[in-house]
Amino acid sequence: MFKGRAEELKKPLATTRIGGENVRRQHLPLPIHNESGRSSRTIARVVTLLALAALINYIDRGNLSIAASLLKDELHLSATQLGILLSSFFWTYSLFLPISGWLADRFDVKWVMAIGFFLWSGATAVTGGLHAFSALLAARLMLGIGESAAYPCYARTLVRHVPEVGRGFANALIAAGVGCGPALGTFFGGTLMARYGWRPFFLVLGVVSMAWLIPWFLWVPPGGTAISHVEKGDAGFRKLLKVRSMWGTCGGLFGANYVLYFEITWLPYYLQRERHWPLETMAKIAGVGYLCYSAAAVTFGWISDRWIAAGGTPTLVRKTFAGIGAGSAGLLLLACAVASPRLSVVLLLLAFAAGGMCGSNIWAITQTLAGPKMTGRWTGLQNFIGNLAGFLAPTVTGFVIDHTGHFFMAFVIMAVVALLAALSYFFVIGPVEEIAWER
Fold first, then answer.
1. Phi and psi at residue 417, to the nearest 5°
2. Which strand (E) or helix (H) includes residue 345?
3. Cβ distance 325 to 192 under 8 Å?
4. Tens digits of residue pLDDT in 351-389
């Protein structure tokens, strides 16, 4: 009797039919509590830890921007040197994403994530004690290497632990961490640096963040607690490049990231210089915007899972939220550029919320398509291409401003890229079902 009960608990709550889509077995009240007892608590803890890691991740990658003026004056850096430091994170982050994806597929994701987290937190702590440009550059490059492990490990962990009907909400919690990171960094980072200096902030943040590793090792057992048996992936990158849906997810992420990096890099400058808002007002509006992103991600992630539990197909549900969210974010920001001051604030906050709607389902699509066998490599390659927007969005925007003297055409370009991302989700990505990888 007990053996039969144990076998029943091991069955996945969302299964995949060959040639079909993920089908639900039952209606579930809470998306991440899809199994009972101890397994349910383990899943909830793991997802919470991943969301917290995402929050720390985005505070660490953005903290140098907050300290930029202090650091420039203290170390007598040129604008060119400061620009190199601010962009250097993306050099190693983007280049190492495919490698980290391969590592996540081939080795125990618990250790891959732990090593990456240790590297990026250590790089943050060490930055607080550095005095030379070359040393700071090396620390930022190491930060990029460490953080490249994050998203492949998130995806690999979720696809092993969380069935289809829970992935929208689980990914939404991670997206909420992405939004809360810049918000907390802006609100508290600036205040603490102004009071205590930038060096103590980096040192304390890096050291305290290391505490995350303790529950990670305690709560995540070796090999994970997968909802079904998972074999190591044998299919290579060459086979992955032949999949049309993979290119669709890359195009969608690129467009969504273009909007996000446009907001992170140039929106504060736009609000101060063209909208003539004081620094404090700008900081409050931007901070609230990131919170809107987080709240919308959680809300629409939960709704997407409830929709699937009620009978909606992952294809319809995931594509709807990702596509509409991406396109709406670009159009709302474009409208913000021509609206009155008060209306522009409303449109700006709605644009952030639309970005959260998209972010709640971006990675759920990838995890379902790639399946346990290829999710690490797919995520790494997709994130590599998607983060090219981190180079292009700031550069293209600056070029347009230099040649036109205004932001309007930069907003137009951003909106067009966002609409292309929406089209990619709707028409380039095929049915959202696991691909049958040949051995």
1. -65, -40
2. helix 341-386
3. no
4. 999 999 998 899 899 989 988 888 888 988 998 999 888
